[in-house]
Amino acid sequence: MTDLNSDIFKTIDPEHRGTTSEEVISQLREMIHRGDLRPGDRLPPERDLAKMLGVSRPTLRAGIRSLAAVGVLQSRQGAGTFVVKSDGPPSLDSSPLRLMASLHGFTPSEMFEARQSLEMAVAGLAAERATSEHLATMSEEIAGMYASLDDPEQFLVHDMRFHQTVAAASGNRILTSLMNMVATILFDVRRKTVKRARDLKESAEMHRQIYRSIRERNPEAASSAMRAHLMLAQKAQESEEAEDGAAATTSDNGSQ
Amino acid sequence: MTDLNSDIFKTIDPEHRGTTSEEVISQLREMIHRGDLRPGDRLPPERDLAKMLGVSRPTLRAGIRSLAAVGVLQSRQGAGTFVVKSDGPPSLDSSPLRLMASLHGFTPSEMFEARQSLEMAVAGLAAERATSEHLATMSEEIAGMYASLDDPEQFLVHDMRFHQTVAAASGNRILTSLMNMVATILFDVRRKTVKRARDLKESAEMHRQIYRSIRERNPEAASSAMRAHLMLAQKAQESEEAEDGAAATTSDNGSQ
DNA sequence: TATTTAAATCGGTCATACCATTTCCGCCAC
DNA sequence: GTGGCGGAAATGGTATGACCGATTTAAATA
Hints:
- By secondary structure, chain A is mainly α.
- In chain A, 64% of the residues lie in helices and 3% in strands.
- In chain A, strands 1-2 form a two-stranded antiparallel ribbon.
- In chain A, strand 1 (73-76) and strand 2 (80-83) form a beta hairpin.
- The radius of gyration of chain A is 22 Å and the shape is elongated.
- In chain A, 38% of the residues are buried.
- Mean pLDDT of chain A is 83; it is low at 1-16 and 245-256.
């Protein structure tokens, strides 16, 4: 029974004034929205900031921890607490999605499908906007793939960098972040299965087809090539896993 | 209910790789992955749980708060801490994305584009998998739109429910969650501008086109119709916002 | 039996102290 | 003068204990 209640938009009560720690979170978020805190900035020491906000240090720490959990702040013992500064594309923490996958029993194929949809979208956008630098990087990574046909681990590095470049070329950082979020969850599995991959040459060829479509500014072809590539990759991985023996590997180390 | 008094909770190893609170997070996450904690379950009281894990209560609270910040746990004063149980589709917290938008200066058009890509993807999948119930719900919502042509607020409710139904029909909960995440950020803006919307009839018609394409099991047409719908919606909203700083003619103008 | 009330439960907050790590500046040797 | 080196200061991490407020539960009363 799928219920489709319309109240999915949890209005977080801007004027909540509920718990004190929530008030702290609101204060800090407000500082970020107003621009008082910019990426890379360092927050005042907890003891001082607590006094400024008129709360105790544990309460302030609770607020800081909440924002740190979602990847906005980062605390380093002895150094201070900083607003996360991402040099490259902004990254969302994937642990929420990972836990949600456990809680609701997401299947790998469902994740693959989500990744496929996202990658197809960014591939299409990349075909419209890729700069010459992006195209050059893609070409280099493909060359790296051909040079690593006998080294699956190294091949995977170039593979990921290629997809990363395509995402960057799409010019949409939101889609890029979401894509990375999903890709991160699938990464562990990929790394395990890629060691016995046997069709690296074909994979490299498909990447080259994606690259050509992007270079020729053909969004539909790029999307389609990406779809074909990922469908094959999924198929390959599933057949690899079928050979394994169905080990319930619940390796859990994703603290990034 | 699962029995939580057994040896499920092993004490934290003295040799903790990272900080103690991170170890607590790992422990809790592991319980969820293993299925010891399932949606709706209630955690032991903090004082007890802290003793079981061999940490102090503040440290345990830090871990709980981190997981609560990403939407996995929820604490209610006086009641206890619970594993979040979502009746409908699982929902990811959108505040991380919202803060990231502030930190990196995401433009509304970038968000619109992300939403468009996600909605196109789910529309295509919905065309492949929508059940008769889904189709019936979509049809009802469209009827509700036509019945609310003179009530923009009500129209928006049916609008959102329609998109929600399409997402549910896609059968991919990850994409649905990501879509909701992005849509939530855009919601506030939409609610403000929809009050002066003037092209509701055309909007309803485009929804109907999406519905028809899904019913006819034509993924490409569904995606395409969704793209057209959202492009028009974006255009309409941008023109609305452009008028905000200028003349205040909020009359029966019917252009667009 | 139903309603009210009181006690137990439990998360939220505060204050304080101490520990672990990092940073930075002054000191000393070269 | 320069460069390494050590220690003090700064700063986040953890622990203990206490009290408050909200919630739940169950007993007591009408």
